[in-house]
Specification:
Order of helices and strands: EHEHEHEHHEHEHEHH
Strand content: 5-15%
Bound molecules: NADP nicotinamide-adenine-dinucleotide phosphate
Low-confidence stretches: none
Number of strands: 7
Structural class: alpha/beta
Largest sheet: 7 strands, parallel
Helix content: 40-55%
């Protein structure tokens, strides 16, 4: 019989330290998908202001480079774990280790995600299923553990990278888009559940940003600069906003896109 922990059980934690008070108190930040272009740029800013960082990614070499850079920039603590986050059974042990390592948790930043191959996903459910697993199931598992941990303590911020792609299904990327639509709905609902417990839950919807994920896309030179996006994210995560479009113009662009009648939308090449 399996003895694996379930989210109803608490994470295996040691004694926690208080995080200190005031807007400039160093934060203990867990970054899931720390080799992401957007996460890396945020890590540079968090490290430079002396925060403690626990960085999780699946590519050991790239993770080591991100961690070494964070140490050079002045992070109070940098610890890492090489984990394939698709392995949801590994989540409770990894999360307990991260929280124990930092003596608590102020911010969890979920940046993992795959764009996937839309055309292949149209032909092969295994491809679609993989995209849905990484972009939806894995974050849902992480957030279930983290939300229960934070709600018990009446503190903490859970910041999640969803996407504007989740706001309307488009023929060019509807498998990725649907994974992000599901994630957005989950994160929004989670906020409605635990905001009253004193936990901030932030749905982040970037428009196109210049990172490895978008480097082969048409027009990528005009996409948002990742350093500017990260500067905005660090601010809104400190503030504990609810739903953030970044760059902010995407709130208006998506309002327009959502308003296009389907009979017209289905004829567009989007
Ligand atoms: N760039 C954009 O235009 C854009 C727009 C809207 C939303 N987003 C979202 O923002 C997030 C970050 O994207 P990005 O632009 O920074 O892309 P990126 O540089 O391609 O980063 C994605 C990261 O997710 C990691 N990852 C994927 N599957 C994983 C797994 N199973 N376990 C652990 N890590 C895994 C990747 O690790 P590996 O390197 O090992 O694959 C990579 O570090 C994603 O959720 C993305 O969907 C991006």
């Amino acid at each position: 019989m399996s003895t694996a922990p379930t989210p109803e059980q608490p994470l295996a934690l040691r004694t926690e330290r208080s995080s200190g008070n005031g807007p400039h108190a160093p934060k203990r930040i867990l970054v899931l998908g720390a080799t992401s272009g957007i996460a890396e740029a945020c890590v540079r800013l968090w490290a430079a202001r002396g925060d403690s960082l626990y960085l999780v990614a699946r590519n050991a070499d790239r993770l080591a480079a991100v961690a070494a850079d964070a140490r050079t920039r002045g992070a109070a603590l940098v610890d890492t774990a090489v984990v394939n986050l698709d392995d949801t059974a590994a989540h409770p042990e990894m999360l307990a280790h991260a929280i124990n390592s930092m003596g608590g948790l102020d911010i969890a930043f979920l940046a993992l995600g795959v764009l996937g191959d839309q055309q292949q996903a149209e032909r092969n459910f295994a491809t679609a299923s993989q995209i849905l697993h990484t972009n939806f199931n894995a974050p849902v598992s992480l957030l279930t553990w983290l939300a229960n941990y934070a709600a018990q303590r009446h503190a903490g911020t859970l910041a999640v990278l969803s996407s504007v792609a989740g706001e309307r299904g488009r023929k060019s990327n509807y498998v990725y888009g649907s994974s992000k639509a599901g994630l957005t709905a989950f994160v929004d609902g989670l906020r409605n559940r635990i905001d009253r417990e004193g936990v901030r839950v932030i749905t982040i919807k970037p428009g196109p940003v210049r990172t490895a994920m978008t480097e082969n896309m048409k027009g990528s030179a005009k996409f948002a600069d990742v350093e500017a996006v990260a500067a905005t994210l660090v601010k809104v995560i400190d503030k504990g906003s609810d739903v953030v479009y970044v760059p902010g113009i995407w709130r208006i662009i998506m309002a327009v896109i959502r308003a296009i009648p389907e009979r017209i939308f289905k004829k567009l090449s989007l």
